[in-house]
Amino acid sequence: MTVGAEESGAVPPEPPVEAVEIFGDALPKARRYAELLADDGVRRGLIGPREVPRLWERHLINCAVVEELLPEGAEVVDIGSGAGLPGLVLGLLRPDVRMILLEPLLRRTVFLDEAVEILDLPNVEVRRGRAEEAHGDLLTDFVTARAVAPLPRLAGWALPLLRKGGSLLALKGEQAEAELVAAEQAVSKLRPNVSDVIRVGRGKVEPATTVVRVTVTSDGGPSPSGSQKSRDGKKKRGRKR
């Protein structure tokens, strides 16, 4: 049975004003999830104890603003879900989105299953497995990931899961642009795509959340040489048939 945060002594801070605005009606579930992270998440080694005081700003809000990129009714696979960041946050914030939390480690999937049940999230499914094992099985609109792997490896796992026009949304840090430049050739060989770095949550969270977005432009298969430009004429990293 899950122990309450108050019982264990690990109590997350009160949600800041920004959280009230961002989560809206979903704030009670977000607060309960913060309690689970501060208690079971720490005891099971899913997050470090030093993260508890900054759960809202550094983790929950940072993930929540990615919902700006998800259209209504989107299907999303969150790979390497870990403690549920960002997939579970997006699932509780957006009940219209169908979310699959894909995680290979048993102790993490047990936590995620418990959290989904406690938070009553019928739109969220937990699957144990690796992303590369789901190739040919899962096909989705978006793949999300946070602190999972370097971009070339992450793209190799994620792009085969995407429908044409689907996007990998990789939450990255301050060096996102440099990482994308360094990964250009490797990512371009996987599937024809366009890629960019965007920042979401401006005016809601400081700093804004940085996302590397890689959108596939074909039904599948490796990409031959050639470059692709976005509609505004700026060169985007990618290859075109």
Overall tally of structural domains: 1
* Radius of gyration over all CA atoms, rounded: 18 Å
Average pLDDT score:
89
- Determine the CATH superfamily: Vaccinia Virus protein VP39
Main sheet summary? 7 strands, mixed
- In order across it, which strands form the biggest sheet? 3-2-1-4-5-7-6
Q: What is the CATH architecture term?
A: 3-Layer(aba) Sandwich
Shape: globular
CATH class: Alpha Beta
How would you classify the helix and strand content by structural class? alpha/beta
Describe the structure.
The protein has 241 residues and is an alpha/beta fold. The chain contains 8 helices and 9 strands. The strands form 2 sheets. It has a 7-stranded mixed β-sheet, sandwiched between helices. A two-stranded antiparallel sheet has the order 8-9. Mean pLDDT is 89; it is low at 1-8 and 224-241.
Write the layout of secondary structure elements.
Layout (H helix, E strand, L loop, with lengths): L4 H4 L8 H7 L3 H17 L11 H10 L10 E5 L7 H7 L4 E6 L2 H14 L4 E5 L11 E7 L4 H8 L3 E11 L3 H13 L4 E8 L8 E8 L11 E2 L5 E2 L5
Helix pairs in contact: 2-4, 7-8
Give a brief outline of the structure.
It is built from eight helices and nine strands. The radius of gyration is 18 Å and the shape is globular. Strand 4, helix 7 and strand 5 form a beta-alpha-beta unit.
